[in-house]
Amino acid sequence: MDNYQEALEKVLNYVHTLDIEDKPLFDTIGQVLAEDVYSEFDLPLKDQAMPDGYAVISSDIAGASEENPVTLQIIETVRAGCLPKNRVKSGTAIRIMTGAVMPDGADCVVRFEFTDEPANKSGPNYNNPTEVKVYRAVDPGTGISKKGASVRKGMLVISKGITIGAAQISVLATIGKTMVRVFRRPTIAVISSGDELLELGETLTPGKSYNCNEMAIATLVSHYGGIPKVLGIAHDNEKSVTDKIKRGMRADAIITSGGVSKGDFDLVRSVIGKMGEVVFSRVEVGPGASVSFGYVHRQDDKEGRKAIPVFALAGPTVGCLINFEMLVRPSIFKMMGKSDIEHPVVKAIAKDAVPSKIPMTFTRWSRLEKGNGGYTVELNRIEKAGMLSAIGMANALTIIPRGTEVKEGDSIPVLPLDWT
């Protein structure tokens, strides 16, 4: 029986990065860059003013002070987006706004605050001043953003494998990218199995339960960047399970929940075997030990026979979601082209104990907290409230290896969750 690491290695042998597509910039949020992106020009294109102030010749104001101001003639006002019409000569100045192109002749910008232009007189209501007194000397280059200071032509601005978010959108828009090459999002079919399942809105009766796994799995698929394709409930007969899996074969992967234990009506594993191959049928960890993985064959007009990965997760929600986090999450990331698919791990101090040496590796729904001294983790309190309640209260998973005894105060590895 495999542990999670061994199982994941097998899974990743059958999961491949998807094809590349060109998309409009704003439509790529959450996707992964499929190529390095270089700037095609310098930014800024020309020297620009950094503050609002006056573009002047530094030697003109070399001796300026509060007691001995230098008076300069104002020959023009230039706002951002406009080009100056005049050249600054000795004894003159140009009023200039942040981001405006520097005029020829000037070698610095002196801020409004260092002149006799009061703050309450600057702005759109302060028109046509003819001269300005400067009260402070500044060095050449002061207040100027030089050509190429932000980005040089040919510079690598974002690397392949980076996930596109707000910061990356801003950078790509700044260098004028309208279309971006990204790895395609995976479409993932979601199937729940079991005659005991009811859809939301139906009346709950003894022996029945609501189809909560379908909603949770679809939510996690979306959260991690995939596109869920919800196919509903497969009933406890081979034809129904087969039909649902056949419907899911147009997707990039299939996730089922339930139907993988040892009961008379747990049919998912056998159907996968008949339609393809079961790679493994259990993992050495609880809850969720009954998880299986395999693939089914799809005949593709362009690619020929193609193996579609099938993740057959445990039916109980507490194990199903652990299966997803440990096996499906990194698989989605690989399909999306992410460069780092490993789950983040932090060290935390145990606030309580797991005294008995358990016979198999166990995963605890845990509560992780960060304080001034680092992380602490509660292992028992939320599970005492009931396993289903534990999911709603937890924000981490703690994997306790077989035969391990955790004592209060021990430093242990914990996997933070970003979806609780």
Can you walk me through this structure?
- The chain is of the alpha/beta class and 420 residues long.
- 19% of the residues lie in helices and 30% in strands.
- The protein is built from 8 helices and 25 strands.
- It has helices at 4-13, 166-174, 212-223, 238-248, 268-275, 317-336, 381-384, 387-393; strands at residues 20-24, 37-38, 48-49, 53-56, 70-78, 92-96, 108-111, 131-134, 144-145, 156-158, 179-183, 187-193, 197-198, 209-210, 227-234, 253-257, 276-280, 285-286, 292-300, 304-313, 346-350, 361-371, 374-378, 396-400, 411-416.
- The model has no long low-confidence stretch (mean pLDDT 92).
Helix content: 10-25%
- The dominant shape is elongated
Number of domains: 4
Structural class: alpha/beta
If strands are numbered along the chain, what order do they take across the biggest sheet? 15-12-16-20-19-17
What do we call the CATH topology of the largest domain? Molybdenum Cofactor Biosythetic Enzyme, Chain A
Major pleated sheet:
6 strands, mixed
| Unreliable sequence segments | none
What's this entry about, in short?
By secondary structure, the chain is α/β, with parallel strands linked by helices. 19% of the residues lie in helices and 30% in strands.
